[in-house]
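Q: Two folds, back to back.
A: First:
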Amino acid sequence: MSALQFKGYAIEDTSDWEKFKLIEFEPKPFGDTDVEIKIHYCGVCGSDVHTITGGWGKPNLPLIVGHEIAGIVTRVGPKVSTFKAGDRVGVGAQVCSCGHCHLCNHNNEQYCHKIVGTYNSKYESGIATQGGYSTGIRCDERFVFPIPDNLKLEEAAPLFCAGLTVFSPLVRNGTGPGKKVGIVGIGGLGHLAIQFAKALGADEIVVFSHSTRKQEDALELGGTKFVVTEDGFETALRASLDLILCTANVASGVRLNEFITTLVPGGRFVMVALPDEALPSLGASTLVTGTYYGGSLLGSKQEAVQMLKLASEKGIKPWIEVLPMSDAGKAVRNVKDGKGRYRYVLKQDIDQ
């Protein structure tokens, strides 16, 4: 696959963010530790929509988004030790870090200050990164993940961002037998968070939503209790949950003060979604309840491998709708409008 054979669907104007244009682009130079991947599928993430609409600020244009990539290795650099041509692999939202800082050396490479995102980012050389709505990608083997044989490529794709983003805080905060977990929001992230919490053995999984519309889905996915976040919802749950993951992609419905009162002392509220708008403010009295409030970004490669193993063993699968990659505009519009149930995956259809 030569440089000229890398093609993808790009956005050229944030005011026309549903209009994708097929362009050619130059990938990073092929390095000794690089893996080159022919992309077969790419999940559509809320991050893609935040970026192409300008919700997170002005992006580098033209821009090819997509960081839930699944495909086949086409070649590897001479120093690559873990992959070979023909392997089934995935790439998530990160393609590089410094590789030698304390964070990188202790399975926290996603927090490295020199993180390079899969798209809308730049390597130190100045080369811009382009994402998975495309024919191929090159990146360091540290950020390539092996896909178990019993996971379909299209079902594995959403795990590399949505799956890892919820799996990491679940395991880092001790989800397992004896724990009670709350999940806020039932969407691309939330529907996987419910499944992983169940697979990790949580005793109770309380699913919070603003209406009853997704109640049946929440219980089918593994939730043990469904709570509509209407006035006073927190009263019956005070000091009962060990962990809450907030996957809600809008700030207006996130009742932070109420949610935090449902945590036991030492319990944690972890934000994994990144809405465009500022979150509601917290009252000082909420912060002196012995609870903790914070966030989590992506996950490490070590956690990605653990996640894929668990998904393989427990049959965890995202609920997906597959569309041709040329329908990217339709997919991002539906994500923006909250119509996905619960992840769109784009299938490669670019003539190579």
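A: Second:
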Amino acid sequence: MEASREWLRKEQRILALLHGPEPDYDQAVGLLDELAAAPGARKVCDMAALYSELADAYAGAGRLEEAIVAKQRALQAGLRSVPDGRADIAEYLLRLGRREEADQLFATLAEEYPDDVWLYNNAGMAYQAAGDHEVALRWLTRGLELALATGDPEGLVAQLSDLRRESLAALGRPCDDLERRADSFLEEHDRTDDPDHLDRYPLAEHQEPGETSLLPVGGRQRVQPAVAWFPPDELEAALARWPQWREVPEKRSYEAHRRAVQNALVRLKELGQSPALAPIAVDELVEWARREGRDPSRPESVAAYAALISARGMAVPWPPGRNEPCWCGSGRKYKKCCGGPAAGRPDMLP
């Protein structure tokens, strides 16, 4: 048990080193190597996710060769993501000017995953960022056509359409029939996505892992979901106060917690709701629970407190824009953090 806690402390230290105001990549790599060499650590820590975090941090700092090596190690450690993690490597290659290698890798991925709309989305963004709007347009067109043909299960029509219009404008071309089809699809979706159908979802008494609370709002019979979120310092305080939480996979570390919160948010959005984040301060939760005669460590208590935060108008809107800072506090853009495709696919989360 003590070894497991030490490994988890190292995991948290690695994340802090990578995403702090002054990242220390060398120290983070050293701790990662220690975890990789420790028997049993892989059963406690998500090494694939940690190496992927390292790759993202390197990429954000422009250290792309190192980002490629880190992403390769993540894949070797069993990284599961949508699109395949090699799509990030292709992006890094493109940014390095190694165009032929990037083109070949993206083409290989398209052959292996012809129905992965996330791949087309990511490739389109990569080529767009590289200034090649002609190639970006081809990828985005394939992605948008696929999303429309399948009914947009990934919720990407709006983003693909926005990106595609950027490339069309950059090329001096007008919106075309595909964009008109996207507009019609989104208009129809808006009409049928009536929030009043949410009447069938009752107030929850016990909800995990995101502690989602549903509240009537505006005197109407509709619900406003609020997903409880413990910022890093507050989660650390909660784990110190309630050590039993370390046995809950969704709370054993901030990395696991933020993934669980994103998972809950995505699931609620798939149900047609408009969820928000309810930041939890442990001391305030404990004081509220004392007044209410509740056990603050219970999921239903956290859910009820999240509902109160939402009712007071203190919840944080979600999702942020794809180029805005991520809600989790990593300092990275949302599209490169919790809003990345793996985070948006609950079935792909470890």
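Q: And?
A: DSSP finds 15 helices and four strands in the chain.
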